[in-house]
Amino acid sequence: MNESFFSQATGKLRKLHALALFLGLASIVGALGIGYVAYLLSMGSTERRYRSFYLREATLLAKPAEASSRLSDEALLKAIESAWKDLGPKPPDEYVCVVDRQCRCILHTAFPQTLGRDCGGNRIPAEGSHPSRTIQEMVDAQRSYVGSYVSSAGQEQIAAFVPIARDGWMLGLHRSKEALKEEIDQSIRFLRTGFYMVCGILMPFSLVLLWKVFNRVEDSRRKTKEALGKSESRYRTLVDNLQDGLFIACNGKVAFVNGAFARMAGYENDEIVGMELRDFMAPVPENEACAQVCSKEGSEKGSEELQFRLRRQGGEPGPLVKLKSAEVDHEGCAAVAGIITDITPFKLAEDEIRRALEEKEVLLGEIHHRVKNNMQVICSLLELQSDRSENARLREMLHDSQTRIRSMALVYEKLHQSSSLAKIPLKSYIENLVAALCRFQPGQANGISIDKEKIEDIHLGIDDAVPCGLVLNELIANCFKHAFPDGRTGEIRIEAHALDDAVLEMKVEDNGVGIPESLDPRSSSSLGLELVTGLVEHQLGGEWELRRGGGTEFVLRFRKRSSDSKTEAVRQRESKERPKP
Fold first, then answer.
1. Cα separation of the two ends of the chain
2. How far apart are CA 115 and CA 135, in angstroms?
């Protein structure tokens, strides 16, 4: 078995040697071909540059005719010849000629004996998009031209023709095409020679380097295979030891699962592959959405989080799991990959906490209701005591005590009606308090209107609502008793608004007779004003002031205490302690 293995390995190495040799030879041939193509491209590019150069030089020689129109023909021809000679050293095959409108040669620097000869039939061969023409056609067209040209002697040349501003003359700058190509070839010959030398020296080394590259590639492939094997082993260990179940489904069928998924479903890994994903969902309505997500048609919903009941082997219901899925590509198939987490313990704990909270809310609501009822009983007892007393002063004191108790009972009634059980809406509370005061003091409230439009929608906790209600009860009751004597009519305005997130300002204002200047509310023996001072400064921790003029205005400011924030803190603590799936 070992000999067979080594013979196969040797055969592979021989094939690699042959392939390396073939590639080396192919690279040499390719390099030579590339060098030859580069040579041809260089020749063409250099020839095009020469043509452009000759066209610019011919244009320059025609400038004397444009510069002075007063020169005679002979003087102009001499000026053109002089300008050509002044351009510097020239190849021996270069010359300038000028023909007139009838294509008679009137200047020829190389062969003066041709002067007066008709050269209109000399041919300009077709080249590229330009058709074949004669010199006569070029003179008649009076257009510049640079390219191939055949002289009267039949020599192939590169010529540049430009019109001269003198009776249809045409100037030509001529150069032997063969001599030009030889000159170009000489200019780039060293590049070609260098290329051949580089190919001859470096190609043998390239074969050795190519062989070493093949050896390194083979070694790298072997190391890569080993690294992939280790990576796959680590991946398999990680996936199989996860507590969450993993799966990949193509067209609704399971293509891969890990050990945790198999344990949750009560199967072995190999038994699950190929089964329908719907087979693992208990037949309950809430599982239909999950089945759509895990199917091919619902793969676009792959980012959703859903919960469903897993069905174990044999059809028995399994744990409650949370599914997180995403659309992936699996072996060329549009598939759905998902993670399922067993959230049964978290759900049980959550349900237990929810039941405890509901019981707590019911109990707290019942407490508020019973406190309110007990206060109503106290009010009834005070009313019975008041009815049995013949002392008018005592009955008034008992009546005031009843209104104070009712203001506190109204707080608990609002708490019982509120959904939070921890805070009450201030606007609704003031409206109910005013209605209760008007109902219990009908004689004093007649003819008095109460403006409550400037009360903002503010919520107060129970720690602030009770003293605030008692203060409002005292101030409004004082308005009824003292602001409008002898049945006068008037108006009471109540305002409440927030100065910032924590500070509240409340106003109770009337347009009655007002408080005398001699009366100091803070040193008054009146129980109501003493209650206002004590409740505002000590219970609410705020301040109040009295404004006189056109009636009486009480302004009190206080900072909301931490009853709301305590409730919020309790909620945050309970939410942190609550187990999350």
1. 57
2. 16
Evaluate if pTM is beyond 0.85.
Answer: no
**DSSP code string of 355-377:** HHHHHHHHHHHHHHHHHHHHHHH
- Model confidence pLDDT, tens digit, residues 208-218: 766 776 677 67
Q: Which of 228-242, 341-355, 410-424 has the lowest mean pLDDT?
A: 410-424
Domain finish residue from 168, 183, 198: 183
pLDDT digits (tens, 9 = 90+) for 445-455: 777 888 888 88
Parallel/antiparallel/unpaired status of strands 145-150 and 133-134? unpaired
Q: How far is C-alpha 311 from the chain's CA centre?
A: 40
DSSP assignment of 451-511 equals EEEEE---EEEHHHHHHHHHHHHHHHHHIIIIISGGG--EEEEEEEEESSSSEEEEEEEE-
Residues 65, 134, single domain; the answer is: yes
Q: Residue 569: which H helix or E strand, with range?
A: helix 563-577
* Whole-angstrom distance, CA of residue 407 vs CA of residue 465: 10
Q: In this structure, what token pair is assigned to residue 327? A: 């659309």
Q: Say what the pLDDT of residue 404 is.
A: 73
Q: What pLDDT score does 407 carry?
A: 72
What is the number of domains present in the chain? 3
Residues 251, 284: one domain? Answer: yes
